[in-house]
Amino acid sequence: MKLDASLPLEYSTEENSNRILGFWIFLGAEIALFSTLFTVYFVLVNRYASGPSSKELFALAPVLTETFVLLTSSFTIGLAINAMRHNFKKPAMVFMAITLVLGLVFLSVEINEFVTYVHDGATLSTSAFLSSLFVLLGTHGAHVTFGFLWGSMILIQVAREGFTPATANKSFIFSLYWHFLDVVWIFIFSFVYLKGMM
Amino acid sequence: MLKQLFPTRHVVGFLSSLVLTAAALSVVAFDLSFTAQMAILLVTALLQASLQLFLFMHIGENKSKTTLYVNIGYALFVGLVTIFGTLFIFVWGWY
């Protein structure tokens, strides 16, 4: 294994660099995936049949909480990677743990929101609008759920092994994924929720 | 240590993302025209996304950054064609 000391640990081997490049290519595919889900939503947003319209359904408070929590978690995973580059193991782990907890808070608010919707009779099969909404939000939420599990595994590895070229690389790739989920949420916040409440 | 743990760039980036969120809220807080509302949402969302991409995801520091820009640019192209191509046909009826 050839280590290049001039690069941050997560890029330090050829394999590490290639993994990061490969993950960016995967994120390109994720952009295409979410674009198709946004497309479906934009086409069907006014087909609310006998169910509620977006204006009747959406409430600002939970959405603002979700946005604030996710933006903060994106900040803390950024700080975790920064701490990792200074080789501060403990602070990096604390920031990563905060990120994961915020991910859980986001999920609980979102699940609570879904339960409220279903309780009000707005289910996946009520209207085309609601089908496309639940699929778009659900795909994002599933990504956050997966990210939470994945991040927890990486946190355990970092706790056991410290920052090696392998764990630093995994942590950095996880941070890319987490920031990407934040980017997707920004578009959901703007073009699903805020536009729906206009 | 504290300065190293909370670098100015990250803190400023985070605060800007909160300010941009607040700015986007103006579309529901004030009575604006539809065009103005959509313009605000587009600008704030694009700025937020760039903030994440360049500041937090460090896209520019990668040694194969040209490849990354081409890849993300191509993905965005495919995404935008999917969204607007579909809207042209199904919503705006430009066919």
Structural features, described:
The complex is a heterodimer of chains A (198) and B (95). With 198 residues, chain A is an all-alpha fold. Chain A starts with 13 loop residues before the first helix and ends with a helix. Chain A is elongated and about 65 Å long. Helices cover 80% and strands 0% of the residues of chain A. Chain A has one domain: Up-down Bundle (Four Helix Bundle (Hemerythrin (Met), subunit A)), CATH 1.20.120.80. Chain A has 6 helices and no strands. Chain B has 2 domains: 50 residues; 31 residues. In chain B, helix 2 packs antiparallel against helix 3. Chain B is built from 4 helices and no strands. The radius of gyration of chain B is 18 Å and the shape is flat. Chain B is mostly helical. Classes of the chains: A mainly alpha (198), B mainly alpha (95). At the A-B interface, helix 1, helix 3 and helix 6 of A face helix 2, helix 3 and helix 4 of B.
Main sheet properties of chain A: none
Overall number of domains of chain A = 1
- Percent of sequence in beta strands of chain B: under 5%
CATH fold group of chain A: Four Helix Bundle (Hemerythrin (Met), subunit A)
CATH superfamily of chain A: Cytochrome c oxidase, subunit III, four-helix bundle
Return residue spans of chain A where pLDDT drops below 50 for at least 5 consecutive residues: none
Termini separation of chain A? 56 Å
The average pLDDT score of chain A comes to: 94
Total E-strand runs of chain A: 0
Q: How confident overall, as mean pLDDT of chain B?
A: 92
Output the structural class of chain B: mainly alpha
Number of helices of chain A: 6
User: What is the terminal separation of chain B in angstroms?
Assistant: 61 Å
Count of DSSP-assigned helices of chain B: 4
Nearest-angstrom radius of gyration of chain A? 19 Å
How do the helices and strands follow one another from N- to C-terminus of chain B? HHHH
Tell me the helix content of chain B.
over 70%
- Helical residue percent of chain A? over 70%
Low-confidence stretches of chain B: none
